[in-house]
Amino acid sequence: MLCVGRLGGFGARAAALPPRWAGQGSLQAGIRARRVSTSWSPVGAAFNVKPQGSRLDLFGERRGLFGVPELSAPEGFHIAQEKALRKTELLVDRACSTPPGPQTVLIFDELSDSLCRVADLADFVKIAHPEPAFREAAEEACRSIGTMVEKLNTNVDLYQSLQKLLADKNLVDSLDPETRRVAELFLFDFEISGIHLDQEKRKRAVDLNVKILDLSSTFLMGTNFPNKIEKHLLPEHIRHNFTSAGDHIIIDGLHAEAPDDLVREAAYKIFLYPNAGQLKCLEELLSSRDLLAKLVGYSTFSHRALQGTIAKNPETVMQFLEKLSDKLSERTLKDFEMIREMKMKLNPQNSEVMPWDPPYYSGVIRAERYNIEPSLYCPFFSLGACMEGLNILLNRLLGISLYAEQPAKGEVWSEDVRKLAVVHESEGLLGYIYCDFFQRADKPHQDCHFTIRGGRLKEDGDYQLPVVVLMLNLPRSSRSSPTLLTPGMMENLFHEMGHAMHSMLGRTRYQHVTGTRCPTDFAEVPSILMEYFANDYRVVNQFARHYQTGQPLPKNMVSRLCESKKVCAAADMQLQVFYAALDQIYHGKHPLRNSTTDILKETQEKFYGLPYVPNTAWQLRFSHLVGYGAKYYSYLMSRAVASMVWKECFLQDPFNRAAGERYRKEMLAHGGGREPMLMVEGVLQKCPSVDDFVSALVSDLDLDFETFLMDSE
């Protein structure tokens, strides 16, 4: 999962637009190779020992978070933000007085970089730092930079300096493709704010943007808000499954894994019971997004949101979802039948499959068919072994090594955060990854990649090295064993490292399109591709060793694990298609032809197949409508592309160096500076159609290619 700040024209582009590294050869030649440090140590060992904290540096100078001198104390955020704001004023003057040309784009990118270097770092610190004073200071910095961004996005002189460049055909023709693309992205972000409109409409656009931010925040909070019910309305024998509060029972989730059908049914019906305030908030959010899209020149919000993506427009997205749904339908029916049989076996009185059943019963089927109890696998997946496995894979595929580096005093926010140097065999140091892997109080329960500093070519010819954080929630080591990962945790680690490699290997000239700052439907491709490596025995066999005996993980255990993931996988994918279709309809033509709940009911019946439950409103818990509005389909499309890249480049040999270099050169290197479909074509050496995407996803539901290869050896 990507976590990136979104600050309009000058903020980090979340998963938003595509990569190019024009003049790749010359840019590479211009970047001096970094020397290797003697203070680096092997990565595997570093993760299987207790952290040394900063005791080696007790008397050393306090460096500040991420090595930023000002951030040795919370007050430093104010100094850093003031410095960034002063620099911004100077750069705005430069942009407005410089004649239009490539220099204009460089100034805009430096402007973006000076704001992002504070905003991105603060975005992370405000949720992850254990000290409230740091979190509050970071929150204040985010607000301050956000206010400046709003000011910049309505600065007509600044906008016109960019518009003059893009309106001059001769100048545009003289720009290299990456520079042209970055200029267009800045202009696109400006026009989302309505800056190209007359004064009255511009004010409406600004007001709508503010309203949308407020509604998004309110809706997001409401998606997690628990519902309560009077105690006497629930059967006595299931009350102990929920939290009590006086005469009420609090329901704070779906309890999808509860073995008792009645517990899951009660949780589903109560947690999803419609809340009038949340319903009004959603309707206003959708309608405000539509008004803003129309005001700035788009027929729907979806048309605006999909500009620059792989899909390009909502028509292609719906075609993709409908074709995928058709191809899945038979398999999904078989999955539902399998669930029905299991339910009948365990609960003969009521065997109708309801929406609260699939997660639980698919788990039961998986456990019965395949012995994949996580505790059998954990001893083979110590964190150190998994990190060494990643190191081996990245080294053989891309010539990259990960080294642990001792952080300076004050550089990290918790003593168990590890700092990794990412080093290429000939290019030297590429960047840094801070690994915040372990559970702690008040830490968000999510696995995420955060960009702290984007890569870019500086004016002096040096390359600004990217810095990222990978956040996981792994158990700590104990006295008797190192940190042991379940197969799911191991796969998540590989997934997040895919994002990190995208950030490290993107060698874009401009920070605005560094690494993962690319379209949402492309941003997950590198991370999902890493899941294919994590599920291939030839890769797993390189590192999965029992932490006590050294015994390798048996081949049949990997095979069972891979096959178990196919259990009810069609029904799982069908559910994602339903969510994605619902998201498209909500952000399509307005006014909506029906209430959001009626649309949910129709879409569920068309795209999922299990009956809608009266008096429920699942859409009010659909938190992705905020960050992924009109883009929920992205995960499915990214998975389709990743599947095709795996089969084309790595299925025959997951360590193929030539394929790894092609993948880096055509895809990872470009960050968000090139059309995403051009990158996909570059790797696949063909232009895939919607049918190709659908076939890739559906073929993954069949017998694993890896398993087939393994069994035929």
UniProtKB/TrEMBL annotation:
How does the cofactor bind to this protein, according to its record? Binds 1 zinc ion.
| Naturally occurring in which organism (per UniProt) | Macaca nemestrina
Per its UniProt record, the required cofactor names are: Zn(2+)
Recorded catalytic reaction(s): these are:
Release of an N-terminal octapeptide as second stage of processing of some proteins imported into the mitochondrion
Sorted UniProt keywords: Acetylation, Calcium, Cobalt, Hydrolase, Iron, Magnesium, Manganese, Metal-binding, Metalloprotease, Mitochondrion, Protease, Transit peptide, Zinc
Gene symbol here is MIPEP
Q: Name the protein family.
A: Belongs to the peptidase M3 family.
Q: What is its EC number?
A: 3.4.24.59
Q: Which GO terms describe its biological process?
A: peptide metabolic process; protein processing involved in protein targeting to mitochondrion
What name does the UniProt record give this protein?
Mitochondrial intermediate peptidase
* Quaternary state and interactors: Monomer.
